[in-house]
Write a sequence for this structure.
């Protein structure tokens, strides 16, 4: 059996309104899908992340650098292929578009492998559980005075079955620059607004609903410590990426100073970055992104590393239904996966419409991997073609 072709497919969807987070604004959603074809007439589907630039950065690496290394290979050896791709691309760095591209290919290979052996991916990864709790991810800023809209959004998530929600913090709207200035604390008014928004959400949702906040690297250690100490009564489940991922000393200082668990880091790549974050005492909750930390192959290794330090793994999956599905399979294949992120931003069509049978949340707030072979999903080809764009977008 041989790989005969690899496709990188860019999708782009405008949003109804511009949304903000600590690192800027966005008015559309995009992703890069990956298809790995074989001479056995079986195709695997994956997803590669791309950020901070055009999608052609990731798509070009897939098509022009990695595909020639894959043609003719036996797809039933995803671990070997991962190692080969990782070693052969060392000059491109150990993060960014190169690792994102490898991630998308790796997810597609696991989907393909599951189809070939007639088993769902979570069983191939270890087979620990048949469902996992999901948290509704959203809570972006839609404007300086959006508290009522935020509260309504979070109530809707709970009404739809979620027992955990996550909202954004860290947008310094009063002192905003483009790009945002990462040095110095936010203006007092912006920080007070964040605290008010968090408290309003806590009051609006039931006490048994877990509340998480995500600052997207937007604060500094002192700000994070001050906010956490002011919100003791809120009972935050975790604070995600409060400061720059590279500032391991600052992360450790935060963990030593607050009782709220610190989560991260979606902006870290491969087991080596997570090894250092865990060893340096930076994290309580480990959050690799399946479609950008190295795919299912590497995230399984990161999960084992986290388990060796008694850390839970809650993968970042804020992208499309393909990455969400991969994250569900990962968390159900390991013993330390208590939650998975479910992107609910403006009823994101990349989550709801990309696959023929959308992923449902049950009345206890759980999602389940499909029992079908591979990832167990089928792309809606009409949707893909309707939103397919040239990768220069």
């Amino acid at each position: 059996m041989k790989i005969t072709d690899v496709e990188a497919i860019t999708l782009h969807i405008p949003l109804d309104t511009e949304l903000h987070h600590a690192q800027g604004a966005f008015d559309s959603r995009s992703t890069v899908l990956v298809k790995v074809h074989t001479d056995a007439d079986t195709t695997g589907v994956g997803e590669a992340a791309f950020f901070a630039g055009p999608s052609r950065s990731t798509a070009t690496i897939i098509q022009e650098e990695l595909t020639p290394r894959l043609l003719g290979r036996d797809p039933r050896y995803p671990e070997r292929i991962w190692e080969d791709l990782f070693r052969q691309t060392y000059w491109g760095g150990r993060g960014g578009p190169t690792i994102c591209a490898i991630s998308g290919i790796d997810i597609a290979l696991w989907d393909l492998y599951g189809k070939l052996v007639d088993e769902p991916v979570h069983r191939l990864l270890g087979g620990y559980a048949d469902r996992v709790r999901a948290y509704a991810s959203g809570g972006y800023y839609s404007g300086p005075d959006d508290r009522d809209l935020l509260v309504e959004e979070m109530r809707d998530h709970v009404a739809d079955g979620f027992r955990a929600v996550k909202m954004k913090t860290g947008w310094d709207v009063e002192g905003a620059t483009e790009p945002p200035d990462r040095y110095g604390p936010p203006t007092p008014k912006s920080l007070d607004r964040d605290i008010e928004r968090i408290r309003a959400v806590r009051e609006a949702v039931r006490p048994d609903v877990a509340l998480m906040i995500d600052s997207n690297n937007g604060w500094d250690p002192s700000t994070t410590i001050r906010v956490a100490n002011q919100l003791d009564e809120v009972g935050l489940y975790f604070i995600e990426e409060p400061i720059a991922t590279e500032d391991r000393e600052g992360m450790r200082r935060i963990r030593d100073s607050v009782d709220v668990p610190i989560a991260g880091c979606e902006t870290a790549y491969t087991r080596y970055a997570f090894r250092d974050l865990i060893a340096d005492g930076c994290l309580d909750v480990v959050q690799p992104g399946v479609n950008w930390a190295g795919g299912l192959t590497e995230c399984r290794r990161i999960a084992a590393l986290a388990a060796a330090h008694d850390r839970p793994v809650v993968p970042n999956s804020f992208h499309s239904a393909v990455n969400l599905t991969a994250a569900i399979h990962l968390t159900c294949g390991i013993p330390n996966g208590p939650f998975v992120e479910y992107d609910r931003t403006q009823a994101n069509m990349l989550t709801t419409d990309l696959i023929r049978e959308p992923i449902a949340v049950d009345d206890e707030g759980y999602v389940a991997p499909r029992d079908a072979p591979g990832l167990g999903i089928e792309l809606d080809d009409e949707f893909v073609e309707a939103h397919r764009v040239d990768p220069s977008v």
In short: The first strand starts at residue 3 and ends at 21. The radius of gyration is 20 Å. The chain has a mean pLDDT of 94. The domain at 3-119+380-387 is CATH 3.30.390.10 (Enolase-like; domain 1).
